[in-house]
Amino acid sequence: MTTTIDGDSRTTETAKWTAEDITALVSDENGLVDPRIYTDEALYQLELERVFARSWLLLGHESQIAAGGDFMTSYMGEDPVIVARQKDASIRVFLNQCRHRGMRLCRADSGNAKSFTCSYHGWAYDTAGTLVNVPYAECFPKLDKKEWGPLQARVETYKGLIFANWDPEAPDLATYLGDARFYMDHMLDRTEAGTVAIPGIQKWVIPCNWKFAAEQFCSDMYHAGTTSHISGILAGLPADKELSDLAPPTQGSQYRATWGGHGAGFFLDDTNMLTAMMSEKVVDYWTKGAAAEKAALRFGTTARARIAFQHMTIFPTCSFLPGVNTIRMWHPRGPNEMEVWTFTVVDADAPDEIKDEYRRHSMRTFSAGGVFEQDDGENWVEVQQILKGYKARSRPFNVSMGIGNDKGGHPDYPGRIGYVYNENAARGLYTHWARMMTSPNWAALNQTRS
Amino acid sequence: MSMSVMVKTSESGQMKPPLVPVNLQHEIEQFYYWEARLLDDRRYEEWFSLLAQDIHYFMPIRTTRIMREARKEFGDSRSFAHFDDDHQMMNGRIRKITSDVGWSENPASRTRHVISNVMIEEGDLSGEYEVSAAFFVYRNRLERQLDIFAGERRDRLRRTHTDAGFEIVNRTILVDQTTILSNNLSFFF
User: Cβ contact (<8 Å) for B75 and A199?
Assistant: First the structure.
């Protein structure tokens, strides 16, 4: 069956889901999510088209490709891309696919190069993705090299983070981020020197749908304040302390984007969680002394300086924890699998000793072997496994925490604000997901903006 | 933490190490088999006692590089890694893995550490040895989860007066994967 979407009449597998069907999968009002959004192959293909081919997706940090010719390979959805720093300091992002027969142009994870030559027939591209040489070009009846370069994505950066978007109609990054920027600056804009990434990106595979991870970092302080991470906290306690010596923090707020699916949550004032994760040295750097004072001045308000531990997701797949400073991309690999790619950022002018503490402790807590993150892997994998069951998929999940308690605006914090233990941000993420999945283009999406 | 230490595979021209006495070869291999038994039998506190106070447990990230840039294959000591732990951090991991609220290992994984290719060189200090070994770690958990890892372990071992005979001062794990093909690394190499 052929369905016309965006004026493009390719046959798709999405035909079985109507816009009405998809809208019914998520109820913001009642806090219900149909678990088929995590398992259905047709919905996943539609996600690749309507979410991943239209959203600003995180690719990395500027410092990871600092010099001209530096490149790294990454993904936008399941599309492999090359992210390359140009001689003029701009960044280009283009499909890692030769236009001739589709071979991958660059199979390395990263490096420095002057060109990319396809190993199949020798077609050569410069680091901007311009086709510059075709062997036996004279044997082609008509080959205008300018028309045969790989697809280029739009590239924008926000305070060191590199984002890209395939859709020429999408709003610019600043508009897309909207009121989320306030919460990003807490990690990215504490000093005029900005941030630098600790070298290295850790990658691992978790057999679960990407949305479990995106939602958790968006909205789920609940799991951190209850059972999931008790042993992670234990691993960071001084030898003479036990879990019974601590109580989970209870003061804090959750942010749901006014529009756009972003979300965050944070504890206020209580730095115990951050100390258990990152050590006293890091917490002191974050809250006292010259660097903290500079950050507070830049914020211009104590409201942001009070944020003691924070989780955040920028819709759809950019998540991070200010304070731990771990940033990650969730790369979808079918409805049942994703890859986590993570790196850590630090203030560029932090002392070397502090940078190393951030490196060691972010890795100790949030990584494949992280004493916190190990347990997230366990949860998500089991949730996905169970959804193989027909009955397991037959009733909605409860995402109703905090309904009725959305305080709306807050004098100190932008967006829709509620109590920190809440699922409002998750409702926002899923509502925006449903919007993107049922809108034929950005013009239609923009109509729904509040 | 100021010097960046690079890790690489052995290089052309590096000599085959001289043979060590058979007894020493036997002692160190048996130490490794004892260590594997402790890990596979989940005797974590006893395993932890094999780690020296100055332990450096390090597993750099490995990347796919073109041949010209092969020297950049492994992360260095200032990069993000899979593990880069000292004694205190390892102690925290032992607290986690022995607690009953560590969900990633309660229920516990079943592991099998197979150690081979043990090659020994005298260390710079008397009583210390630089040891390279190949490992194959099989990890199975719950109903059907199966993860396997292969790689090289480079250790500095130090003779002790304990029954075990040695303690581990440095362990550098060079895994034969770039993207880690497992949902977590909740076990020890």
Answer: yes
- Chain A positions touching B83 (Cβ under 8 A) are 363, 369
Closest alpha carbon to B189 in B132, B133, B113, B131: B113
Q: Does domain A57-158 have CATH number 3.30.70.3450?
A: no
Query: Out of A113, A203, A230, whose CB is closest to B180?
Result: A203
Check B184 against A237: CB less than 8 A apart.
Answer: no
Reply yes or no on domain B22-175 having CATH 3.10.20.880.
no
Chain centre distance of CA A345? 14
The pLDDT score that the predictor gives to residue A2 is 38
Q: Do domains A57-158 and A178-447 have the same CATH topology?
A: no
Kindly list the residues from chain A whose CB atom is less than 8 angstroms away from the CB atom of residue B99.
Answer: 230-231, 234
pTM (two decimals): 0.95
pLDDT of residue A5: 39
Residues pairing with A297 in the sheet = none
**Which pLDDT band, with edges at 50, 70 and 90, does B1 fall under?**
very low
- In angstroms, the CA A134 to CA A145 distance is 8
Q: Do A204 and B2 touch (CB under 8 A)?
A: no
User: Topology of A178-447 in CATH?
Assistant: Naphthalene 1,2-dioxygenase Alpha Subunit; Chain A, domain 1 (3.90.380)
What's the complex ipTM? Answer: 0.96
